[in-house]
Structure formats: structure tokens, C-alpha cells
Model the fold of this input.
Amino acid sequence: MYITGIGWITAGGSGKGRGENPFDFTNGALPEIKGNMFPENPAFRKGRLDRFSMLGLEAITFALHDAGLDGFIKKNQSTGIVASTVYGCLATDIEYDETVNHENGGLPDPNLFTHTLSNIFLGYAAMLYNLSGPNYIIYEKTNSGLSALDAAMECVIAGECDAMLAGICDVGPPEGFKCDDTFRPGAIFVMMEKEPNNKKYFGNLTIDKKGNILLNTTVINDIAECVRECLKNNHKQ
Done:
């Protein structure tokens, strides 16, 4: 599996694998997410997106553009998405619940209601970029992203699709929720293709006999490490 594109939004900033912005997966507040690169679609209104969906969709968009796909997948290439998350859209769920007047039966916010599933942004991505492969969310105890990388590779190996976007997406824990010391908010996605088709690529992902994920010959412990290794390789080209 060849990594042909990378996109991220973290507390350290946003960027693409072949862009100028450095990758910094640090703790802190996430930057403003504008969605200026989203393609126009009459069925899509970015102003209605909750923060979690906007975060994931923006990082996916960066990864697709970085892969040289101009934001649109060819019709003959089946591409899926798998994203791992710790908290998912829990913050949106709580915000939605707060719009309900439990005592007097007030009407809840319908726009928030449409974003109370963590996989909503995957559907937006599929619609905007013609992603016809499988797409789903994996819940993890940490946001290492290893489950997403492993699942994406298995999908392609099993012949379910030709390429996969794999990554993580988390805006952070809602107020009052504790998180693991290793947790960092943000979204990171990599574009993985079975064949690079003469494209420049950052590295080749494989799984060894012990179940370890390797980027070329380096064992990868989380998706952030995968991105750092990819960027090292890119600078050597």
C-alpha cells in the first residue's frame, strides 16, 4: 500500500504532505476550520456542519489534494474511508441535548440532530469526492490511528476497494470528561493506494508476520509517527 497524500489539522496548525507547513501533533486548541477547499455541490452546505464533521472533512480534503487527485476520485477507482476516534461527535450530541427543553417539551435543534452520528462526515466526503468504497468509524481508547491504518490495508488486500483514506478525527473531550495523557485533538488522514500509478509516494505500508505495521522497514506505532516518517522520506526525494 503506497501513501500518496497526507492532510492534517492539529493544534500545531494545518497542512499537506507536500506543503510548506510543518507537521506538529501537539496538545492545545485547534485552529479555525474554514473549509475553503471544499468543492461546490448543491446538496452540500458547509455552514451546517458541526465542528467534528468540519474537522474530518477538511483533513480528508487536504489529503486528496496532496495526492494530486484535485479533490475528485476517478470513477473507475473504488476508494473508501476509515477513521478512528476516541470521542467521536460526543460534543455535538451534548450540544444537541442542551437544545431540548426537557421540562416543557421544546423542539430540539434539527441541524445538530443531523450530526449526532460520528460517521456523518464520511458521507459528506463520499458525496463530494465520489468515494464509492466502504466507509466507517472505529472507536479507540487512544487516538493512535493504528486500527484505522490496519483496517484500511485489510480492505484493499481483501479486494473491497482500490484505495483507502485512513486517519483519526477528534475535536477533544467535552467539558468535564477526562482524557488519556497521550490524547491530542485533531484530524490526520493519509491516502493509501494499491498502485501508485507513476505518482511520487511517501512510502510503502506493509504488515509483517507479527502484525506490526511497517512504513518501508520502520515499525509504525501511531499515525503521527507514520506521517513524520513519510515527511522524512519526502525530503530525501
